[in-house]
Each structure stands twice: as structure tokens, then as C-alpha cells.
């Protein structure tokens, strides 16, 4: 997300940063003017980095007004190695911690680090772990993170982290060793042109060719990384430069005239007044806040207090406004809440602060906030108008803009002119009808419930990191973040393996905080080696592993868009599916970290409590069903009207139940009156229906589960069409006027008048309706599919049917398919496990929960 100016540049530990007027270095990626051509696809990514102006308040006014560095290991005129100059330059920038993994081309830097009494090196076990840890450090503290790697493969292992930091606007300085200058371009051992490799995924990068440039380059790197829209900067240092002796000049000014000239000024007061006028004229305003508001949380809260406008947050913006506040709509977008997406869809004014209109938020751009006027405030001019054209735009620091708006609100008496109570009541109704919820099945642990319990036991105060996948979205939905920088996740890049090393960085930056890595088994194992770092550093990181033995989010997309065809998404051992594989407890044990596994819901709270109370690191392996989907969900490229959620509103369920009872009373009256009971003969109709069964539902040994579903659906469709036609002709009935939807159940006929046509429709649907009415919250129809896996899951499905008082058959062998399906079609029976050959295949439950 487009971010506001980093708070790091205004801290007391930030060293001297002086502007300059000359630049001898070609600024390769930053030569394009920052505001030009941002709509052209080829220049978009470049200008994304070029247009990273600093806020006028925090970076341009006085870039050289911090405390002078007071200690050096060397006398002023004493020559020292380039590596020592580099380390001292880091010390002068206030660096206290680095994440560095040594190699041949960076050995000199590591030797210099051992001579520093200020900088601590946290040794990762992989360079990717190091760069993700530096990100976690920066995201949780607001200070720039620093990582160091050697040349060649060490440098290329930083690529994912650099790309992640660019997309999520994270201040990062990466330093890489390089082969000696004379060997550059000769394909020397462990040589890669890392400057060229990372040109499009860094805000800027340097290749140091003169040892005397090190002080200036390091100062510029930290200024670029933390000013404007923060981002990653890379410094590539050849080994001979590290070894060369020199006397540093610490007073050389920065040479960034182009960059400094493009920094945005303070917002025009006329623009702020125009925004207030739009707010006062609106009836349904909504705040859409992103990562750009993390440094302006206090101003944002004050603005909401003055206006009463509800707040929807992006994934990157969680915590900028307290999630538990009554005006919070929580997260919007693909897996956002129904009410947040509803608010944006129905709004007449969208206040987009520090956001970039990402595709996972907007879906179909033409439908996103289509009724609203849009106000866009962002520090990166390239983001304004890139995806969605605003009616009013301000290019500047969100913090400064909000300060100006709040000042106008407090002084002008505009607060009294704003009354959005009706709008808030409308949204509160949506909250009641469409809350974030989940279903439970017997003793299995719902992953959402695990996060809820963690939230309760930590009182919402933990710093939470995640990998990428379903667990990431559930952590965004069900943990109630109170403040900015509590939530650490890979948003734009979606890099699996991020959670564990990011937690390391957060624990280093916040030694007194509770740090929890909520991870999935797929993401966790990508950087599992960092358990060794956690143990050696004795970092009190708690790891709550939601283990479903699958790539959960990919499985969800397979289920919904690829007919549940499993394409290499099972992470367990196919030859022994009854066992949890790999055994995560043994990974922890190998690194000397206490660990436990929990499989039953009743044991979960005690297990999480023990995890939190155990000193030092701890791993809790929480076994969860892989059948669970992240809902709500707006399909990619879809609009709010396409949203999929767990079930219908509770109020609507109540209305339909009441209607059903009334209908049954009407049926009884009809049966008790006239000659209805003895005057109707359905023999011809039953013969026609049986003929359809024979023709359309004849099964062979090669009939697939999908073909069964299609045939069954055809039969149901034929039945309903015939009922409509016959009832309308005989009793002049209208067409169905209402659908009862609950987890894939479509009940036609609820809009018919109470006549004979109603009797026929209702009788055919009573079996369906009975299920919904007599199901508890735990046993209602919950989704479009039931997914079958290991034997214990099949057993749970069997118990689930029995718990609802419904006959069920358990099928595991192919030889019994014909008889079992015939029984299902001719009786009220649920068939569990009909896939036969593959125990990991999935079958749509809406075909198997009814029969004739």
C-alpha cells in the first residue's frame, strides 16, 4: 500500500542527513520524472519508486538537525578499511541490529561487525530469513531494517524480501558483498549483477566504486529508504573496496537534487476545505485507509472522532484504526467483511487515505465505489489516478493532511453540520446480519476459533506475524488489532515463509512484547530453519501453527474454480495419510524448542495458555480440517454483488422459519377440508418421474461422482419444471417469487399462495426445510462442498449426520458404489465417501443431502 512518510526519520536516534545539490552518480531507476507517465504500464512500476517523495513535514524541512555521532573507534585521521567505514556509517545512522549471513565476498564486513560495540548481528540460517527478519524489524518499529549478504547466491536470496518491501512500502537497507572491481563482468565465482537484478524491485540501489563514497552513499540510502513512500535500497560493495584503507569524510553532503525537488509540499488549505465540503454534503461517507496511515494513527482517530465516519481498512492498514472500535468496519476487499464491502458499495463519498486501490480490494474496478465521489490522499503521486480516478486528490503526507483537516474541523464548527447516524445504523444492521462467523464440526478445531482464543488470552496486544494463505486471512479477520505495527504480513507480494523470520525481527525490535507467529504448515516449512536462530538468540516467540496438511488457499481455489481437482496441494505423505507429516514437533525438538500438538477443540484454550505462559520460544501444532474455506469471499475480478458468505442473515432465517410454520398450518387446513385427501391421483406423474430416473440416472461402474451430480441435478430440475407447469395450469399459481438460500440450498415455492399448488411444492421441499429448521448452529448446511480426506474426517461426517438425526451410509469401496447410490436415490440417506478410488477427492454436498 502506498505509505505515508516514515516515522523513523524523525526519531532521536536518526543521524545527520544533509541535502546537497550535485550528483555524480547516475540514479539509474530514479531518472524518470516522478509524476510523469504513471499510467503507462511499462513506466508504472518505475515511477512507483521514483515518485516516493518525502513528507514536507518530516523529511524536507530540516534533514540535518539530529544529534552528532559522538564515538569512533578510530582517531579522526586514522586510515581504516572500507568495511570499518561502512560499519561506522551504519552506527551513525542509529543502527543497533542487523541480520547478516556471511560469505566470501562479505567476510570483511563481518570482521568489522565484530569490532563494533554498538551493532548486534542476529545470524539467520538463510539469507531470505535475514531479509524477512529485517522487514519484521522495520514493520514493527518504524525504523529501517538492515540485512547483509554475500555475493552471488547470497545476494539473489534477498530478492523476494526486496520485492516484498517495495510493494508494502517497508524501509529497508540491504548490503551485499561483491567480487573485486577488476573481476566484475568476468563471470567470476559467485558473481551476479545484483544491481541489475534488483533494479525494478528496489527504490534505489548503488554499486560502490570508490571507498570515499561510502559515508555519503550510506546516508543517502537511509534517507531514501525512510523518506517519502518508504522502500528498500540496496548497496553493493566490492570486496576490494571493503579492504581498501581510507580516512572517511563524514561531512560530505547528500547528492539527491532531483529526488529532493520532487518531494511533495504541505497540502493546500483550499484542497482540504474542498474535502470538508464534500464530507458535509455526503450522506454515506466511508473511510478507506491503508498502510499509508500507520504513521498517522493518532490523527486518523481524531478525524473519526470529529466526523463519525465509519472506517474500512485494507490488509496493510489493520491497526491504524482500532479494529474493535464501534466505527470500525474491519477489513474490506476479497476476504473482507460483508459490511465493509457493503459500505463501500453503497457509499456516496469514499475517503481513500494512504491506499493504492489494489486489485484484491477493488475487484472489478468499474463496480468499486461506483456511486461515490472519491477523495484520494497519498504521498506517491504515481498512485493517484493509476487504478481509480479520484474527484479530489492531494499528493502529500497523510499525517500532515489529517492535521490540517482536523484543525479546520475544530476551528470551523463543521462538526455540527455532520450527522451520519442513519448511515451508521444501516451499517450496524449489516454487522448484525452478516457477522464474521464460522461453523464447528464435533471435536475438530476451527482455525478461526484458535485465533479468537489467542486474541482473548493476549487481550489483543500481541504483535502478530503470518505466512501467506488461509491462516493469514483468518488472522486478519479474527484478531482485534488495537494499534499500528501489531500486524506483520506479506501483503502485496504474498511471500510464503514470511511469518517466522518476521517474528524474529519483531522480537529483536520489541524485546518486551508478546510476539506470535500465526503460520500455516506450508508457509512455516519454507523457513523452518529459522527455529535455530530463535533458539540461539533465545527469542520468546510463540508459534501457533494451523496445520491442515494442505496448501489451504490453493485448495480453496481448486474447490471453487477447478472442480476440486487436487493438483499437488497435499503436503502430507500420500502413502500414510492417517499420520501428520512432517512431524513439526520434531523440527522444534531438533532445535531445543518446547512444542505440543492439540487436536481437540476442548483442549485448545489450555494449550494456547500454556504456550503463552512458557518462558522463551514455544511451538503449538494445532491440527485443523483442510475443508474450511476463508469466507466471505469476492471472486477475483468480481464485485460486491458476487460476494460469497457463510449463510443468510439470522433475521432472514427467522422470517423464513415463520413462513414455513404458517405454510404447514395452511397445508393441514387443506388436507382436513373438502375431498383433497381422496381426490388426487399422482400415479401418472410418478410413472413419468420413475421413467426419468431410469433414463437419466442409470449408473455404470465408470460413472464418476461429477456425472452423478449432473444426473441428480437434472432430475431435480425436471421435477421442479414439471411441478411449476402442472401447478400453474391446474391452479393458476404464480411463478416462484422467493429463494431460500442457506449453504447452497435453493428452496423454490415459498412465494406461492396457500392453495393446492403450495401443497405440492411444500411437500417436495419439506425434507430440505426440515434439515435447516432442525439443525443447530453447528450442524447447518455451511458451504457449497463437503471435502473428504482421511478416515477420521469421514468418521466425523458420519457422526455429523447422526447428530442431526439423518440416516447415513458410509462408503469406502468401489464395489459398493451402485447399491449405495441406488439406496441414496430412493431413500432419505446421506452418502459419505462416494468417490471410491480417491479418498482426497471432493463431492458437492448439495447433491447428496436429499434423495427420493
From TrEMBL:
Domain Thiamine pyrophosphate enzyme N-terminal TPP-binding: from-to ranges: 81-191
Catalyses which reaction(s): 2 pyruvate + H(+) = (2S)-2-acetolactate + CO2
Tagged with keyword Zinc: no
Cofactor note: Binds 1 thiamine pyrophosphate per subunit. Binds 1 Mg(2+) ion per subunit.
Transmembrane segments: 745-770
Cofactor(s) named in the record: thiamine diphosphate; Mg(2+)
Region of interest: Disordered: 1-21, 52-76
Pathway assigned to this chain's UniProt record: Amino-acid biosynthesis; L-isoleucine biosynthesis; L-isoleucine from 2-oxobutanoate: step 1/4; Amino-acid biosynthesis; L-valine biosynthesis; L-valine from pyruvate: step 1/4
E.C. number: 2.2.1.6
Domain (Thiamine pyrophosphate enzyme TPP-binding): residue spans on this chain: 467-622, 722-758
Keyword Transit peptide: yes
Top EC category: transferase
Gene3D superfamilies tied to this protein: 3.40.50.970, TPP-binding domain
PANTHER family: ACETOLACTATE SYNTHASE CATALYTIC SUBUNIT, MITOCHONDRIAL (PTHR18968:SF13), THIAMINE PYROPHOSPHATE ENZYMES (PTHR18968)
Protein name, as recorded: Acetolactate synthase
Lineage: Eukaryota, Viridiplantae, Streptophyta, Embryophyta, Tracheophyta
Amino acid at each position: 500500500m502506498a505509505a505515508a512518510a516514515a516515522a523513523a526519520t524523525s526519531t532521536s536516534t536518526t543521524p545527520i542527513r544533509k541535502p546537497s545539490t550535485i550528483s555524480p552518480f547516475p540514479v539509474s531507476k530514479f531518472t524518470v520524472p516522478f509524476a510523469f507517465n504513471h499510467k503507462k504500464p511499462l513506466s508504472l512500476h518505475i515511477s512507483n519508486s521514483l515518485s516516493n517523495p518525502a513528507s514536507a513535514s518530516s523529511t524536507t524541512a530540516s534533514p540535518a538537525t539530529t544529534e552528532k555521532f559522538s564515538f569512533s573507534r578510530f582517531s579522526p585521521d586514522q586510515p581504516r578499511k572500507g568495511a570499518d567505514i561502512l560499519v561506522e556509517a551504519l552506527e551513525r545512522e542509529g543502527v543497533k541490529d542487523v541480520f547478516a549471513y556471511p560469505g566470501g565476498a562479505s567476510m570483511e564486513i563481518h570482521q568489522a561487525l565484530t569490532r563494533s560495540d554498538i551493532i548486534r548481528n542476529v545470524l539467520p540460517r538463510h539469507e531470505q530469513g535475514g531479509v524477512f527478519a529485517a522487514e519484521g524489524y522495520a514493520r514493527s518499529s518504524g525504523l529501517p531494517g538492515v540485512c547483509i549478504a554475500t555475493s552471488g547466491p547470497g545476494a539473489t536470496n534477498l530478492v523476494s524480501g526486496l520485492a516484498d518491501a517495495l510493494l508494502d512500502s517497508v524501509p529497508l537497507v540491504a548490503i551485499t558483498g561483491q567480487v573485486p572491481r577488476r573481476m566484475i563482468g568476468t563471470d567470476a565465482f559467485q558473481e551476479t549483477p545484483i544491481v541489475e537484478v534488483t533494479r525494478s524491485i528496489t527504490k534505489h540501489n548503488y554499486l560502490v566504486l570508490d571507498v570515499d563514497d561510502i559515508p555519503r552513499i550510506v546516508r543517502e540510502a537511509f534517507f531514501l529508504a525512510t523518506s517519502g513512500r518508504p522502500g528498500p535500497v540496496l548497496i553493493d560493495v566490492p570486496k576490494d573496496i571493503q579492504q581498501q584503507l581510507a580516512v572517511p569524510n563524514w561531512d560530505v553532503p547528500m547528492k539527491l537534487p532531483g529526488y529532493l525537488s520532487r518531494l511533495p509540499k504541505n497540502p493546500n488549505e483550499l484542497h482540504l476545505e474542498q474535502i470538508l465540503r464534500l464530507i458535509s454534503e455526503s450522506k454515506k461517507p466511508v473511510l478507506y485507509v491503508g498502510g499509508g496511515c500507520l504513521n498517522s494513527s493518532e490523527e486518523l482517530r481524531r478525524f473519526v472522532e470529529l466526523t463519525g465516519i465509519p472506517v474500512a481498512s485494507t490488509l496493510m492498514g489493520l491497526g491504524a484504526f482500532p479494529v474493535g472500535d464501534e466505527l470500525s468496519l474491519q477489513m474490506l476487499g476479497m476476504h473482507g467483511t460483508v459490511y465493509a464491502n457493503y459500505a463501500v458499495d453503497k457509499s456516496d463519498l469514499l475517503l481513500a487515505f494512504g491506499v493504492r486501490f489494489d486489485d484484491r480490494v477493488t475487484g472489478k474496478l468499474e463496480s468499486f465505489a461506483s456511486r461515490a465521489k472519491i477523495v484520494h490522499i497519498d504521498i506517491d503521486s504515481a498512485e493517484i489516478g493509476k487504478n481509480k480516478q479520484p474527484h479530489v486528490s492531494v499528493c502529500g503526507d497523510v499525517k500532515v493532511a489529517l492535521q490540517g483537516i482536523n484543525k479546520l474541523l475544530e476551528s470551523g464548527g463543521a462538526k455540527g453540520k455532520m450527522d451520519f447516524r442513519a448511515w451508521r445504523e444501516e451499517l450496524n444492521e449489516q454487522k448484525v446480519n452478516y457477522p464474521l462467523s464460522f461453523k464447528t464440526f464435533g471435536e475438530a478445531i476451527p482455525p478461526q476459533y484458535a485465533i479468537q482464543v489467542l486474541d482473548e488470552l493476549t487481550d489483543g496486544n500481541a504483535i502478530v506475524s503470518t505466512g501467506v494463505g488461509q491462516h493469514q486471512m483468518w488472522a486478519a479477520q479474527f484478531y482485534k488489532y488495537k494499534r499500528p505495527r501489531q500486524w506483520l504480513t506479506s501483503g502485496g507480494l504474498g511471500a510464503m515463509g514470511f511469518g517466522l523470520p518476521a517474528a524474529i525481527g519483531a522480537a529483536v525490535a520489541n524485546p518486551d512484547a508478546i510476539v506470535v507467529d500465526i503460520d500455516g504448515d506450508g508457509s512455516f516449512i519454507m523457513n523452518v530453519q529459522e527455529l535455530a536462530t530463535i533458539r540461539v538468540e533465545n527469542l520468546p516467540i510463540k508459534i501457533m501453527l494451523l496445520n491442515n496438511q494442505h496448501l489451504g488457499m490453493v485448495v480453496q481455489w481448486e474447490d471453487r474454480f477447478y472442480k476440486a481437482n487436487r493438483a499437488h496441494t497435499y503436503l502430507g505423505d500420500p502413502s500414510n495419510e492417517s499420520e501428520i507429516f512432517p512431524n513439526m514437533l520434531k523440527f522444534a525438538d531438533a532445535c531445543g524448542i518446547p512444542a505440543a500438538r492439540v487436536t481437540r477443540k476442548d483442549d485448545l484454550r489450555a494449550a494456547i495458555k500454556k504456550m503463552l505462559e512458557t518462558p522463551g520460544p514455544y511451538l503449538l501444532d494445532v491440527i485443523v480440517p483442510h475443508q474450511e474455506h476463508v469466507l466471505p469471499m469476492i471472486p477475483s475480478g468480481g464485485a460486491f454483488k458476487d460476494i460469497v458468505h457463510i449463510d443468510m442473515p439470522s433475521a432472514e432465517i427467522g422470517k423464513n422459519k415463520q413462513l414455513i410454520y404458517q405454510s404447514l398450518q395452511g397445508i393441514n387446513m387443506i388436507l382436513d377440508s373438502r375431498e383433497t385427501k381422496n381426490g388426487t391421483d399422482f400415479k401418472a406423474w410418478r410413472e413419468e418421474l420413475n421413467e426419468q430416473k431410469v433414463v437419466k440416472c442409470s449408473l455404470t461402474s465408470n460413472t464418476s461422482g461429477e456425472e452423478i451430480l449432473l444426473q441428480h441435478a437434472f432430475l431435480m430440475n425436471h421435477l421442479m419444471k414439471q411441478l411449476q407447469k402442472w401447478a400453474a395450469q391446474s391452479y393458476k399459481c404464480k411463478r416462484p417469487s422467493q429463494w431460500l438460500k442457506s449453504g447452497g440450498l435453493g428452496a423454490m415455492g415459498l412465494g406461492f399462495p396457500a392453495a393446492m399448488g403450495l401443497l405440492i411444492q411444500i411437500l417436495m421441499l419439506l425434507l430440505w426445510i426440515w434439515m435447516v429448521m432442525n439443525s443447530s448452529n453447528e450442524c447447518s448446511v455451511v458451504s457449497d462442498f463437503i471435502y473428504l480426506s482421511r478416515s477420521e474426517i469421514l468418521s466425523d461426517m458420519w457422526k455429523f449426520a447422526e447428530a442431526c438425526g439423518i440416516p447415513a451410509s458410509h462408503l469406502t469401496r468401489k464395489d459398493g458404489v451402485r447399491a449405495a447410490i441406488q439406496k441414496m436415490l430412493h431413500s432419505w440417506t446421506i452418502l459419505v465417501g462416494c468417490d471410491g478410488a480417491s479418498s482426497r477427492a471432493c463431492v458437492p454436498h448439495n447433491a447428496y443431502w436429499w434423495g427420493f
